[in-house]
TrEMBL record:
<dbReference type="InterPro" id="IPR003439">
    <property type="entry name" value="ABC_transporter-like_ATP-bd"/>
</dbReference>
<keyword id="KW-0547">Nucleotide-binding</keyword>
<dbReference type="InterPro" id="IPR027417">
    <property type="entry name" value="P-loop_NTPase"/>
</dbReference>
<dbReference type="GO" id="GO:0016887">
    <property type="term" value="F:ATP hydrolysis activity"/>
</dbReference>
<dbReference type="Pfam" id="PF00005">
    <property type="entry name" value="ABC_tran"/>
</dbReference>
<feature type="domain" description="ABC transporter">
    <location>
        <begin position="6"/>
        <end position="229"/>
    </location>
</feature>
<keyword id="KW-0067">ATP-binding</keyword>
<dbReference type="GO" id="GO:0005524">
    <property type="term" value="F:ATP binding"/>
</dbReference>
<dbReference type="InterPro" id="IPR003593">
    <property type="entry name" value="AAA+_ATPase"/>
</dbReference>
<protein>
    <submittedName>
        <fullName>ABC transporter ATP-binding protein</fullName>
    </submittedName>
</protein>
Amino acid sequence: MTNSAVSVDGLRVRRGGREVVRGVSFEVAAGAVTGLLGPSGCGKTTVLRSIVGVQVVAGGRVQVLGHPAGSPPLRRKIGYATQNPAVYADLTVTEALRYFAAVLRAPASDVDKVIDAVGLGPEAHSLVGNLSGGQHTRANLAVALLGTPELLVLDEPTVGLDPVLRDSLWELFRSLAATGTTLLVSSHVMDEAARCDRLLLMRDGLLLAVDTPAGLRERTGSADLEQAFLRLIREQEAARS
Ligand SMILES: Nc1ncnc2c1ncn2[C@@H]1O[C@H](COP(=O)(O)OP(=O)(O)OP(=O)(O)O)[C@@H](O)[C@H]1O
């Protein structure tokens, strides 16, 4: 792939005394939505942390927007939304975003823009501590959008959201990609896979497949992506035995 925003080569990570990412290589296309999918515990968050540069790695190479992962020029080019929101509970949504905008040196005008983008307009003056789980998740996503980052790394951004909100967030992701933002989005919900341009399917610390949703359906002969994923697992297990 010529136009890659992220290039991961032979990534290995040890956590809790064992290798949880066991030699993973892939590229993330610029200006597209790439889904990182796989069951709970397969290593998705660890791969995302390695790309953002907050994970000690045991081996391999991770290049992001032409720089080694974690290097200073990347700080303001990447927006990262973790699974555990870290937005301050005793501030209002607007105050919290103003604070993060100042820290990130993002324009003050971004604050209202990102609040609207994640559909939190009605809660703009509510205390973060009083938000519902789904609203808190969206406040966290809003922080990642500040400063219009070139790369958005989103760890399960739609967990706990109802179908209408999930749909509107996926529309937001698609519109960001349409304006050139690169998105890497993890999920363990296979129905979200269909909304991605490309898929990275992980299992047990390894990449099972890298393909488009259509390519995956075709190569497994399965219209349903969940079934396609299960078929790949069975093929892999048959090949091992
Ligand atoms: N802080 C930690 N210390 C030790 N082991 C960890 C730590 N965090 C994660 N692990 C282990 O690393 C493995 C990969 O975890 P990771 O969080 O990357 O998976 P995941 O695919 O993102 O899971 P989920 O979908 O549940 O978030 C798991 O087996 C997990 O138990």
